[in-house]
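=== Structure Prediction Worksheet ===
Name of assembly: unnamed complex
Input type: mixed (protein and possibly other molecules)
Chain count: two
Listed entries:
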Amino acid sequence: MLIAVDAVGGDHYPERPVQGAVNAANEFDNIEILLVGPEDLIKKELDQLEYSSNKINILHAPEIIGMQDSAASAVKQKRNSSITRGISAHKQGECAAFVSAGNTGALLAASMFLLGKLDGVIRPTIAATYPTLKGISLLVDAGANLELKPEMYLQFAKMCKIFSSEIMNVENPTVGLLNVGEEPEKGTDLHKEVHKLLSDFPGFQGNIEGKDILYGKTDIYLSDGFTGNVLLKFGESIPDILFQMLSKTMQEKGADQETRQTVLGMINDTMHAFNYEHVGGIPFLGVNGMSLVGHGGSSVEAIKNMILNAAKCVENQVNHKIVNSLNN
Amino acid sequence: MLIAVDAVGGDHYPERPVQGAVNAANEFDNIEILLVGPEDLIKKELDQLEYSSNKINILHAPEIIGMQDSAASAVKQKRNSSITRGISAHKQGECAAFVSAGNTGALLAASMFLLGKLDGVIRPTIAATYPTLKGISLLVDAGANLELKPEMYLQFAKMCKIFSSEIMNVENPTVGLLNVGEEPEKGTDLHKEVHKLLSDFPGFQGNIEGKDILYGKTDIYLSDGFTGNVLLKFGESIPDILFQMLSKTMQEKGADQETRQTVLGMINDTMHAFNYEHVGGIPFLGVNGMSLVGHGGSSVEAIKNMILNAAKCVENQVNHKIVNSLNN
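=== Predicted Assembly ===
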């Protein structure tokens, strides 16, 4: 299966995307790679790596969309970018999926514009993986749609359930509606309506509150994209904040070198759960194609896992299952 | 100054409220207390304490509003409750303020219904104190108003600035608008409008994101009450989650007893910042009176500090300053 990889996406290109892609191809017989980006940059990086040349291909795309570029850049200003060329190649059936650790807004815009929506989808969405005491939950929407209509919550629940069970191997995923209280009558009129709409939905556990998130109360957390985005970024700040707060405490207490190492070591191991590396990327759910985005800071391991996730989405016919779920 | 204290509010009544009130009266010459609640319950508790009887008074209120009672209970079903009687006494000028660690919804409803709004206020609000790397920021609205109009953001900013400078002793408090990105054009149409409306507001630092909150980027975080409530409860869950996650890590690593004590001790000291005890309660800003609410789990120390905060609000003429700020 040929997976296109954005060679110039994220904060550490071309090293990490190229290395991650090569690792995926080296480790998995069924994976072939199409590296998308400036050819010279990619070749220079590949020169330093060992790989089987018949499994690594290059699609030249001279332009680079930076992390600060606007969402519209991919479809308006930079049509020769890795994102636009890569998704176009996927659209034309040249590869099974496109993955990138690059600009999420530009990726979403290009995916929507070039690939379109799956049959029956109101709006595609992006779910974030959220670390919890129990493992990993999905938080949807994570910023693609700031305001939602009630039907969108239901569709997002359906799409996430498929991703959760097919790709994350969760049996019978549970769903919670993020709200300001547990009772069905809590929240805005919108939330009350959504609660009603979801009441018969298999796996729906009712409202969940902010305090339930880190405990992993349900496998899927439904939220508007505004609150979801705030929570996503808040969560990502926790490990660094904790390090800083702890370092301050230990300085104040005059802790010795050994104590500092012990404490920070344990925190480091614990915060590993907040590391997005193991999860890899997340697809734009509802898009008529397979386009995955990873964190800008993705490691080589994260890039490799994103490629494997993409392959798994294709093999498990995630999009086909989404269409069936939405239209039945 | 006579401060009325809800003797049956919170998760630990009557012990903590009564003890906190007695401590405040014992430690501060200018503080006198009016304990509101079932007389027999209060007297039984007072019997165990040492205090100067001319500084502690009782207002009998036979009914108790539980933490699970509806917001309307205070103004509809339970008119002889400590909350309703206490706020009524304040309304009639019998005491300078009313404080409670009880049901926030019922307290807000009773305060709104019995005391009304200050001149020029669209909607009263409640700000939460949020621990950060720099100290404590105010998060407003924390759940009283789930959806806001642009003008409400501006009023909340004005009211919080007064509370922050007068009561929390912050010089020239800074204000940030919680949003999904830093740039002024980020967010919903509402957020763009609010950003414009605040652009000339003294201390306004523009948009802040979820990742900025724990760093204490500004002294005041403006948010709709839905997102604010989710963030508030999320933050409160962090200390326990961290303890559980760390305990799990240490068990997996086979850490010895000494290591466990060292690590959990440091975490305990660090998480002290997330403890609401030092802050005491927060007033309903914009209400025509002085009504403060504290966390249901408030300690004796927190109750005492809430009483001191109430006195400080009265002394510093917080309401007078709010009216001036809103109408100029």
